[in-house]
Amino acid sequence: MDGDPHSVTGYGVAVANSKAYGGGMYLAPHAELDDGRLDVMLTKAHSKLHWLGSVPKVFKGKHVDDPNIQWLAGSEIAVSADRPFTVYADGDPIADLPVTVTVSKQALRVIAP
Hints:
By secondary structure, the chain is mostly beta strands. It contains one helix and seven strands; from the N terminus they run ββαβββββ. It has a three-stranded antiparallel sheet, with no helix packed on it. The chain has a two-stranded antiparallel sheet with strand order 4-7. A two-stranded antiparallel ribbon has the order 5-6. Strand 5 (86-89) and strand 6 form a beta hairpin. 12% of the residues are buried.
């Protein structure tokens, strides 16, 4: 993350620029589209029963204080793993690891009423 290494053994890594995705899951409810930062959720290994119980909380953004989740943020996120993984963007496969994801602050101009 911005050149600073982090490691996790667990269920997954999610990189988000917006609050919600996937039909209304508030994965990163504190994310802002225009702040030039990507919010990163690292889900540490824990019991499958606890994980299943926490999944419904994502639809309201109530999972953020779970001790098995670590939050990070940066403008350039490089992700790799010790085995092959496919990277998905809002449910669609887009690449295989390793990947680097970047964001630029306020790069898109929008005109709205």
